[in-house]
Specification:
Strand content of chain B: 15-25%
CATH topology of the largest domain in chain A: Fumarate Reductase Iron-sulfur Protein, Chain B, domain 2
Number of domains of chain A: 2
Structural class of chain B: alpha+beta
Mean pLDDT of chain B: 96
CATH superfamily of the largest domain in chain A: Alpha-helical ferredoxin
Helix content of chain B: 25-40%
Low-confidence stretches of chain A: 248-258
Strand content of chain A: 5-15%
CATH architecture of the largest domain in chain A: Orthogonal Bundle
Order of helices and strands of chain A: EEHEEEEEHHHHHHHHH
Low-confidence stretches of chain B: none
Oligomer: heterodimer
CATH architecture of the largest domain in chain B: 3-Layer(bba) Sandwich
Number of strands of chain A: 7
CATH class of the largest domain in chain B: Alpha Beta
């Protein structure tokens, strides 16, 4: 069998460079298999995250030949001939080698007000399948954070992270907003604190999503429309002035749920 | 004296899969200072890989389902070795735990009248598994994770715990570990500790388990003086991928069979009809026509033998392959393509479709899958008090896969996610009550802490020792060959000898590089637990001279009623570590009260 050559980024927050590893190729392997073989035979301290090795946990995100992908779901025989480049996700600070500090995402998760259903009626909640399918699409998210990585609002502008939640959390807001039972209104929050308006719908997030979630079309654009309805529609504004609001107002949406 | 960072809590929970998350919710809700510690990032634990569903007798599809039927299915599936009280609590409380998840935001698939849809699974008499396509584990972990975050629980990620630490009186009072990103040491002192560390499949070569499943909790509990039970009972899931080699062992959900998929050998025969054990004969179809009628209406026929409990199906596949009727890559065929429409398959089994398409280039809507047994689940584990999750040493509580008893000798599919919820909550309550009643500050023993730190850093001190990766691979090869799905006394004795050698070699591994995010070093610190757990499995397998559930002895092929009355209990003096002397003794299983025993009489 022939050899494969891997150019793997090695280093830490202070800097680093690509290191070249050559090893025999094996049938049916994915990029993560080759990284594991490098660890076992040539560089025991090569850092990478992984867990399930089945595309279900979203741990092994990296930039393979410049494109964000899950290492466990990228088959070597489907990459172009020649050396394969593996680098850490660019939008996050580097811890070591292929491992980045993704704590930004866990901080953004804390800002999402929890799901708040009405009390459970006798016989349980009833929801129709058709009404939850959109929410289920968003809940396929495995939190690989590649949509965050590729979003130029934060990839190229570190300073935006303070007030921009990113595509992963836009689908979370959308999921809750579209949940048949939820009683919170998060539209104002997603406009102001989560920075939905900064997204200019280039669809890069949708392109890299390993779960094929239509992030832009099914979450971001509908959320933008809802925000517009809530914040800028003069008829709705007048209506709110005259009538009392029905839902909890955006500012009252609590982060800690019921 | 080595330096370390310190934290102090009322309750610490080690492990953030379903059980750990659920325990943390309970402790936090009771107002205790609660910390959740996990080896990976939050939301990546092995629970995320659960596919088929969570078993709960809600009766949404078959109104005649109830907790007694679920209890009976669970006990029979476990070959009656289960702790009856755990099985009872589990069956009674699972529906409430599922409804609770829904109130926290989980979106289960629905029935036409808007209730939670339930699917068929092996060993369950009625369609009982609440599910979200074939990604139920993801839904469960994400729902619990989001709940934990909304409650503001302190979460410590990428922290590997090395040892539990007791105080001078022998009460578990904390744990010592290190941050994987920096390699710096950390000590958590706590009034109560919950272990929710999951399983230990990573000691086998072909496994559905992730790298995290190294049996840390089983080993740490044993080292702390707690009892383990029935460690020989390891489940080999009948359907793992067999090709390509790099993904061999990866799980193929039982939902494929629940939704109509059938097993065939190389001759095209649905061979499961030839493997129906006496215990299940009265309830199982004896022709393909009857089995297929059952799929549409459970009152029109008896259940298909493809959905016998997992131990039965795994052994059958093993026999077919050994008899020369296997598939090209050493498995058998799992066929749903010829039985259901492509639309149905893609809707019901989206991740299976994706997994085979991407990794094997197989379109499961057009051709059969090749599958074979894979090391999947530990039924055995830490001995606990059913109601509280308390281990046999004070201050320690245990829930989920690392606990023993609930599943007896074999677990039914779907009973794991419900186990996590029911007993995660109960261990959270047990630990909270214990912590609230404990006076003074916990004082973990400084000598034990220092010893653990020295031991953990030792691989850096050695320069010419062995490579931890090689040692791990040898352990996996050995356990796969000698302590696999079918066992014999001779091979088990050989395995114990090999384990002695591997233990000596593990004491000499060396690693290069620094402490910060060093996987070679991380693996070196996982090896002691893997070796201890492998030894416990082998000792149990040697001493249980019968075949029962997940434990099959070629030299003792039948179940022995005497062994059916005992747990094999393993323990060692506190503080012994991987070199400790393990004692193994049979002790009677708890006796079932008469009103439950009645459920198993012939009339039922």
């Amino acid at each position: 069998m022939s050899d494969v050559t891997m150019n793997v980024w090695r280093g830490d927050g202070d800097g680093g460079d690509f290191a070249e590893y050559t090893l025999p190729s094996q049938e049916g392997e994915v990029v993560l298999d080759v990284i594991h073989r490098i660890q076992a035979t040539q560089a025991g301290d090569l850092a990478c995250r992984w867990n399930c090795k089945a595309g279900k946990c979203g741990s092994c995100s990296a930039e393979i030949n410049g494109k964000p992908r899950l290492m466990c779901m990228t088959r070597m025989d489907q990459l172009p001939e020649g050396p394969v480049t593996v680098a850490p996700m660019k939008a996050f600070p580097i811890i070591r080698d292929l491992v980045t500090d993704v704590s930004f995402n866990f901080e953004m998760a804390k800002q999402v007000p929890a799901f708040a259903p009405p009390p459970r009626p006798d016989g349980g909640y009833r929801m129709q399948q058709i009404d939850i399918e959109r929410g289920q699409e968003f809940r396929k998210c495995i939190e690989c954070f590649m949509c965050q990585d590729v979003c130029h609002v934060i990839r190229d502008h570190e300073e935006n992270k303070a007030h921009y939640a990113g595509p992963r959390f836009f689908i979370r807001y959308a999921e809750l907003e579209m949940h048949p039972l939820d009683t919170n209104d998060r539209r104002e929050l997603v406009r102001q604190k989560a920075g939905l308006g900064m997204c200019n719908i280039t669809k890069c997030c949708t392109e890299v999503c390993p779960e094929h979630i239509k992030i832009t079309d099914n979450a971001i654009i509908p959320m933008k429309e809802r925000v517009v309805d809530a914040s800028y529609d003069p008829v709705a504004w007048l209506g709110r002035k005259i009538l009392r609001r029905q839902k909890a107002s955006p500012g009252e949406a609590t982060a800690h749920g019921a | 004296m080595a330096e370390y960072e310190s934290h102090d809590y009322d309750v610490i929970i080690i492990g953030a899969g379903g059980a750990g998350l659920r325990a943390a919710i309970e402790a936090k809700a009771r107002g205790l200072r609660t910390a959740l510690i996990c080896k990976s990032l939050l939301g990546k634990a092995h629970t995320v890989m659960a596919e088929g569903g969570v078993a709960a007798a809600m009766g949404n599809i078959y109104a005649e389902d109830n907790w007694q039927v679920h209890f009976r299915d669970t006990m029979r599936g476990g070959k009656m070795l289960n702790n009856w009280r755990m099985a009872q609590l589990h069956a009674q409380e699972a529906p409430d735990r599922v409804h609770e998840l829904e109130a926290w935001g989980a979106l289960f698939d629905r029935t036409p009248d808007g209730r939670i849809l339930q699917r068929d699974f092996g060993g369950h008499r009625f369609a009982r598994l609440a599910h979200v396509g074939d990604r139920t584990g993801l839904e469960l972990i994400r729902t619990l994770q989001q709940r934990v975050v909304s409650m503001d629980v302190d979460v410590f990620m990428e922290c590997k715990i090395l040892r539990l630490v007791a105080d001078a009186e022998g009460v578990v009072s904390g744990a010592v570990g290190y941050w994987r990103p920096t390699g710096e040491m950390v000590v958590f002192s706590a009034k109560a500790v919950v272990l929710a560390t999951g399983g230990a499949g990573k000691s086998w070569k072909y496994t559905s388990n992730s790298w995290e499943c190294t049996g840390d909790g089983h080993a740490m509990a044993l080292w702390a003086g707690a009892d383990l039970i029935d460690m020989e009972c390891v489940q080999f899931h009948p359907t793992g991928m067999v090709w390509p080699l790099s993904v061999r062992g990866l799980l193929v959900t039982e939902g494929v069979r629940g939704d109509g998929g059938v097993l065939r050998n190389s001759e095209g025969t649905r061979f499961m009809f030839n493997y129906v054990a006496e215990m299940f004969r009265a309830e199982t179809a004896d022709s393909e026509e009857e089995a297929d009628r059952w799929y549409d209406d459970h009152s029109a026929g008896r259940r298909t033998p493809e959905l016998l409990p997992r131990d039965e199906v795994a052994r059958a596949i093993n026999t077919e392959v050994k008899s020369g009727r296997g598939s090209p890559h050493g498995g058998v065929f799992l066929d749903i393509a010829s039985r259901r429409t492509p639309e149905y398959i893609r809707r019901r089994l989206p991740s299976m479709y994706h997994q085979f398409m991407e990794l094997a280039g197989v379109d499961i809507t057009a051709e059969p899958m090749e599958v074979g047994p894979t090391c999947h689940y530990f039924m055995g584990g830490v001995r606990v008090e059913a109601d509280t999750g308390a281990a046999t040493v004070p201050g320690l509580f245990v829930a989920g896969e690392v606990a023993g008893g609930m599943h007896g000798a074999n677990r039914l599919g779907g009973n794991s996610l419900s186990d996590l919820l029911v007993f995660g909550r109960r261990a959270g309550i047990g630990a909270s009550d214990y912590a609230a009643g404990r006076s003074g500050s916990p004082r973990p023993d400084e000598g034990e802490i220092q010893h653990s730190i020295t031991e953990a850093f030792a691989p850096f001190e050695r320069t010419d020792g062995e490579n931890p990766y090689e040692l791990h691979q040898e352990l996996q090869e050995m356990m796969q060959t000698l302590v696999g799905i079918i066992r014999t006394g001779d091979e088990l004795e050989r395995a114990l000898g090999e384990l002695d050698v591997l233990r000596d070699r593990a004491a000499k591994v060396s690693v290069g590089g620094g402490r910060a995010y060093n996987p070679g070093w991380n693996l070196a610190t996982d090896l002691p637990a893997m070796l201890t757990v492998s030894r416990c499995v082998t000792l149990g397998a040697r001493d249980r001279k019968e075949s029962r559930g997940g434990h099959t002895r070629e030299d003792f092929p039948s179940a022995d009623p005497e062994f059916g009355k005992v747990n094999l209990v393993q323990r060692q003096p506190s503080g012994g570590g991987v070199n400790g002397d393990i004692k193994i003794v049979p002790e009677p299983i708890p006796e079932m009260p008469a009103e439950l025993a009645e459920l198993f009489e012939e009339s039922h």
